[in-house]
Write a structure and sequence with these properties.
Layout lengths: L2 H8 L1 E5 L2 H4 L6 E6 L4 E2 L1 E6 L5 E5 L6 E2 L1 E5 L4 H12 L7 E4 L10 H10 L4 E5 L15 H9 L3 H13 L9 H17 L2
Parallel strand pairs: 1-9
Antiparallel strand pairs: 1-7, 2-7, 3-6, 4-5, 8-9
Helix pairs in contact: 6-7
Length: 195
C-alpha cells in the first residue's frame, strides 16, 4: 500500500483560507485544494508577528466556504503536529481538530464536524488562533481599527500586509476585504509614485 493510498483511506484533511493555501511550505498535502469546505465566519482580524492582518475565524453572521486538502499523515495527532509546525505555533492547542478529544473548545467546531461527516472524513485540522491586535487578543477589531493599523506600517510591512490581503483565495470574501484591497492598492500606488 502506498503512502498516498493509506493517507487517503485515513481521510484526514486540513482547512485553509489564507497563506496556507498558496504557501504550504512543509505541510504534507496530497493533491490540490478543494473549494467546497465548511462555511465559516472569517475576517482579516489578527495582527500577526510581522504586523500583517491575517484571516482568522471570528464570531460573525456572514459565513464563507473555506478550502481543504488531504494530508499525508497517519494519525490526527500527526496532522495537528504538522500544521502547528507549518504555522510556527509552539502550542498545539491553537490547532483545531475534529474529532476533538481535548478540553479545548474551538469556534464552530460543530459546523466543521457536520461537514466532515458529510464528506466521510476521519479527521480535520485547522488553525484556530484568536482574533485581535497584539495588545488586545480575543477582541475582534472593527474595520476602522484594521485600516488605522495598516496606515501605521512602514513600506516593507505594508507590502507584506498588502500581499496577504491580495493573495487570499478569491472565494474568501469577508466584510472587510474590498475596503482593505482598495487601501492596499492605494498604498502600493503611493509607494511606487515615490520610487
Amino acid at each position: 500500500m502506498t503512502a498516498i493510498t493509506s493517507a487517503k483511506s485515513l481521510r484526514i484533511v486540513a482547512l485553509g483560507w489564507g497563506s496556507l493555501v498558496w504557501d504550504g511550505r512543509n505541510l504534507p498535502v496530497i493533491g490540490g485544494w478543494s473549494a467546497d469546505g465548511p462555511e465559516l465566519p472569517l475576517e482579516f482580524a489578527r495582527e500577526s508577528a510581522d504586523r500583517r492582518m491575517t484571516l482568522v475565524i471570528v464570531e460573525a453572521q456572514t459565513v464563507i466556504p473555506v478550502l481543504w486538502t488531504f494530508l499525508d499523515v497517519e494519525t490526527l495527532d500527526q496532522a495537528v503536529r504538522v500544521l502547528a509546525d507549518r504555522e510556527g505555533v509552539p502550542k498545539p492547542h491553537v490547532i483545531g481538530r475534529w474529532p476533538n478529544q481535548t478540553a479545548v473548545r474551538y469556534l464552530h467546531e460543530e459546523a466543521i464536524g457536520r461537514w466532515a461527516k458529510r464528506k466521510n472524513l476521519n479527521g480535520v485540522v485547522w488553525t484556530a488562533l484568536p482574533p485581535g491586535m497584539r495588545s488586545t487578543r480575543g477582541v475582534t477589531p472593527d474595520l476602522q481599527e484594521v485600516k488605522q493599523h495598516l496606515e501605521t506600517l512602514d513600506n516593507t510591512a505594508r507590502m507584506k500586509a498588502a500581499e496577504y490581503i491580495m493573495r487570499a483565495p478569491s472565494q474568501i470574501k469577508t466584510a472587510y476585504r474590498s475596503e482593505l484591497e482598495s487601501l492596499s492598492n492605494i498604498r502600493e500606488r503611493k509607494s511606487h509614485a515615490h520610487d
